[in-house]
Amino acid sequence: MAWTQVYEPLGGIGLSALAASVPLIILFYMLAFRQAKGHIAAVAGLVGALLVAILVWKMPVGLAVNSVALGACFGLFPIVWIVITAVWVYNMTVESGEFEIIKDSLARLTDDRRLQALFIAFAFSCFIEGTAGFGTPVAIAAAMLVGLGFTPLWGAGIALIANTAPVAFGAIGVPLIVAAQVSGLDQMTVSAIAGRQLPLLSLIVPLWVCVVMCGFKRSMEVLPAIIVAGVAFGGAQFLLANFHGPTLPDIGSAIATIVALMLLLKVWQPKSIFRFEGEAPSNLEGQGYPLAVVLRAWSPYLVLAVFVFFWGLGSFKAILNGLPGTVFNISWPGLDGEVMKTAPIVQADAVYGAKFTFNWLSAGGTAILLSGLVSVPFMPKYGYGKAIACFMRTLKQLTFPILTIAMILGLAYLMNYSGMSSTLGLAFTHTGWLFPFFSPLLGWLGVFLTGSDTSSCALFGGMQKDTALAVGMRPELAVASNASGGVTAKMISPQSLSVATAATNNAGQEGKLFRFTIGHSIGMTLVLCVLAYLQAGPLSWMLP
């Protein structure tokens, strides 16, 4: 007989939600105050979650352990698989010497750190977000920024802050597609509303990134680039989200932004170049490398972009998954069919499935692996023997991040299967007429818990719809706000922190990175909370 989830084990939603937040409080304390290494914080949070699930929620020990194991496996595949292959491609470009050519080509385009951040962390990262998502853009952008000369903390921090506005439309629109599916609402309407929230955030993210790097006064030195990047990105995002759907806003916005910035730099350059304190200016001698050499150096990332684009297409993914032996669906023993969801989380009692899908060929990490293998012949004096050795060194380099990500996903799955996540969500539904303000915050919480806007939408999408109908709010606005609010939690999610520190070879510094990003996450979230509240009232004319 299946174990039935309980959502108010302490007799009231207030105390129950407080108990459910204990693992998150432990994580927050370890990262923000103790500045603990990621794997240490993950262990502490996981132990706390196990104790609360077993002692307070009365979850059977076997179910608790199996839910952690399922989450850990999901952390290893597909998420860790993406991180390993992304860092491996970067490491190969460094070992082969090709990254020096990439650095030179970027420096000749602009030697200004602010503009490099807009190109790599904002625009190029958005393209990778739109095609792959799930940690890939942060891993690629953070590694590239460090290769350009950013310190590991600045490279990881800027990559995380810049990777906000595109997240809801990531992986060919999966988060918003899932949000519409689980809530039973019209996909185009949900996309259009998100397309009238996130473009406003997109307009300010370039300025936000620059202010973080150098302050407001020096940011004004690159105001033309800030305006061009924000308008190109936000404008394309608005048009595609409202008139095409959720699948292409990221890809179209990224291409529009990169082209717009390159055209701008042909007619304008900042009067003074910004570099971090203590940095020497780039030594740019001669005319630089020939175009063919520059394209060869960039080829691993150009090939990567092509591969992840095709791997992100639903039709292409279906072809790959249709090949014999490429997909294995595993009913997780001791968990699948053993947990029952009840009202008010679901309208009728429903079994909480526990399936693990090993789609090794269609996984995003496999696309990156293949792009790396295809790129090896383009690297001078670099062969497959060196590439394999580099892959093994990359695995060793990522030992602790791999453990951290696995434990964090184990914690997230435990909170989901025990009912703790649902208890926290229910607490927000008791805010009544203030619910429109808290609706994005619920999405923010979901992404902090799971590291994924898709998972957050799957977790809370139905609840957002039901609560919105109860308080007189448009359900499409609530569901879209869940996806929009989630984007600002990516920069503080323990999973994302581990990916960023792993990509910058800075494992163990997750606490410092959390302190670097937490204020920005809260600030951006409040912007979206106020916007959603106003759109539910005086700014309702903004909605389709």
Class of secondary structure makeup = mainly alpha
> How much strand?
under 5%
* Cα end-to-end separation: 46 Å
The general outline is globular
Output the radius of gyration: 23 Å
**Into which percent range does the helicity of residues fall?**
over 70%
Description:
The protein has about 550 residues and is an all-alpha fold. Helices cover about 70% and strands about 5% of the residues. The chain is built from 24 helices and 5 strands. It has helices at about 15-20, 20-35, 40-55, 60-95, 100-110, 115-130, 135-150, 150-160, 170-185, 185-195, 200-220, 225-245, 250-265, 290-310, 315-320, 365-375, 385-395, 400-420, 420-430, 435-450, 455-470, 475-485, 495-505, 510-535; strands spanning about 5, 330, 340, 350, 355-360. The strands form 2 sheets. The protein has a 3-stranded mixed sheet, with no helix packed on it. Helix 3 packs parallel to helix 18 (about 400-420) and helix 6 (about 115-130) packs parallel to helix 14 (about 290-310).
